[in-house]
Amino acid sequence: MVRFLIRRVMLGILVLWLVTLAVFFIFFDLNSSGPESVAHRLGGRQATPQTIKLIEARLHLKDPLPKQYWYFLFGYPGQDVANGPPRNHGILPIGGSPHFFHTPDLGYSYINGENVNHKLWIAFPITFSLAIGAAVLWLGMGLLSGIWSAIRPRSLLDRGFTLTALFFYSFPTFVLGYVLLLLLYYYLTKAGHAWFPAGTYIPFTSDPWQWARHLLLPWFTLAAVTAAAYTRLTRGSMLDVLGEDYIRTARAKGLPERRVVFRHGLRAALTPIVTQFGIDLGSLLGGAIITEKVFSLPGLGYEAVAAITSNDLPVIIGVVVIATTAIVAANLVVDVLYAVLDPRVRLH
Amino acid sequence: MTVGDIVSATHVPDEGPLAVGPEAARKIEGRSPWQLAFERLRRDRAAAISLVIIILIILMAVIAPVFAHLTGHGVFEQFRDTGLSVDGLPRSPRSAFLFGTDDQGRDVLVRVAYGARVSLIVGVLATALTVSIGTVIGLAAGYLGKLVDTVLARLIDVMLSLPFLLFAISLASVFQPSLTIVIVVLGIFSWSSVARIVRGQVLSIREREYVEAARAMGAGPWRIMFIDILPNVLAPIIVYTTLLIPVSIVGEATLSYLGVGVQPPTADWGQMIAEAATYYSVAPWFLIFPSLALLITTLAFNIFGDGVRDAFDPRSDRQMG
Predict the structure, then answer these.
(1) What is the extent of the structural domain holding B306?
(2) Which of A9, A242, B197, B222 is most solvent-facing, going by the fewest CB within 10 Å?
(3) For testing the chain A interface, which of B157, B165, B176, B309 should be mutated: the one with the most A CBs within 10 Å?
(4) Is the pLDDT reported for residue A214 higher than 90?
């Protein structure tokens, strides 16, 4: 198990490193014609010539690319002057000066001088709340309806679930979001039933009940499309497992059906679902971007989309780095969970 | 989530490949798996209906100029007097504007018709690109094996788990957004699911006798991969292709909705929805019609794709998740 863990962590670090390489390549080299065009890109639409010069000097854009990449990771030299220009320690939490260990530094937005770390620190809990709630909801809906379908295949309920699943699966996330916004928020509120509030985010720490109530529609929007796929996945996997000999044995020795289905059946049926869950974390984040835009929740995705309009690239870089780190970390957790569920995984 | 998770919901195929009805029992003739699949697809009523809808949507895209001609409203034409209310707001559906108007006084009906063009073009081209890349990488990983497979399989895993939309946003913010960029971005980031399926199929096929025979006769890896193996993994590739089209269409609409896809004033469903979002309380029709068009299109393609999958593999209902 320890060896398995070490290998997984190493792999995660490798992926993160590749991601930083990709991000650096996309923003500092791809489709650019020299240092000035990169500076123009990072400076936003309305950057003045002075800003461009400043960016060029501060990020050492005239240095060779490998050197720039090194700075990008470990920090830019010559910026530790007291009261001088904003520091940039690089996106890794290690290396650089004056302290070897430090918080990863995502730099500054050149449009309004805002600290990207600070901006995303505020946005992160919103995306996190959205993603966690949606993941719980989608697994819950998908697993329950899938198990139910598998216990009584070809029943009316099974057909109903599969049809509903296909219907929701075909919904683009933002279309579903607007349908809910229009029907459950706008028309209901207009009719005097303000059951589903929207458009604001209440922090969990200030009022958990209102936090959940305000996130209900976004959660459902984000969860429904994926839950549909999980209904089918669970149903297929459960049907396969319930056809196995050991399930017949379990029934034959007189175990109650509930125990057969949940203890003996579900555990084995869960492995493909856990695999798929790890894969879907990335699209969960993609869906979160869309959902945040639909419901105007100022999370990471919302900031990223807003940054496209103003061409605020440092913010986009920051969101990509944070989001992929979160996904790699979450994948690690899923992999460990997988190894606990299915002991065979640990062996090779 | 990958395309593989969508599974049949239209009907439950309870007849095996042999149960073709009483008339088939009378005269026995040899049929290729392809003929059988086609036969099964023809019997699938839900697939037939969705195919008709798909054809209607294609027709709508082709004859979009006819809509413009009949209504007398161009796609980009703004009717500031007749198409906007006194307050400058979109006007509701009426005889002159069957689907109402948008925020700039343009005809929503005509724009929805033109929007089908972008969706279908991107849907087909991006899917073609995705499938081509995925097939080549899947073949290479599955057949060449060893180090190639280890590296490619890891790459597939990593690509599957990365947030595609964020990288799409990054690429689009570095390039000028355009239709080509949308197609390339969709292709680059969705090949991994195809590659995973193809690789799995190739792994089981490459140990077969006919591949060994080809190798014994001195065929090179390229010949074996593309002449001997590829035709035998074509069925899952075709199934995947039909299921990928709606995914590509939604992908394009999403990118355009976020502002990194097709740029205004080109009529595009995703972008229309983004524009309509501000007006959803005063002009719901502006939001509803492009949304409905997008939903009907993806639903039709999904149901049809399901039918194709069931036709090629009647047992798929149990095998796939």
Answers:
(1) 45-312
(2) B222
(3) B165
(4) no
